[in-house]
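Reviewers of the previous submission asked for a worked example of the structure-prediction workflow described in the proposal, so we include one complete record here. The input consisted solely of the amino acid sequence. No template or homolog information was supplied to the procedure at any stage.
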Amino acid sequence: MSVAAVYVPRVARVLRGATQGIATREYVQAAQARGERAFAIVLREVLPNIGPTVLVEFAIRLTYAIIFVTTLNFLGLGLHPPDPNWGLMVSQSRTTLLVNPIATLVPVVAIGAVSVAIGLIADAITQTFGVDQSSALLR
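From that input alone, the workflow returned the following structure tokens.
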């Protein structure tokens, strides 16, 4: 719940900005002039054009959320020891870092690998749509 409270306003602000950039385009105005309903305009005109922006924003915020939850669990503000969590694993094994570094490094590498994988998957999907990621962020 705390993750949603932190990230929903940011995602909403980015999506609102992307939608406002698309809503003033000629093809949206033409759809309005044809008398299409607002829901149909959103589905046919707006969503396909903000799709890459939504995907990039989702990937970035998902990565931030994973790190946020892991940090909360590392600090002891989340799950408790019987539950498996990378933040708990790092927290519990940090005292034995010099004796057993693998116990600390494996969850850290897993967090990094998941974060990079999410970014690469989102980038591949965005490129499949045929839109450059940097232009999706600039709209």
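The helical segments are 2-23, 26-33, 38-74, 86-93, 101-128, 133-138. We consider this example representative of the routine output the project will generate in years two and three.
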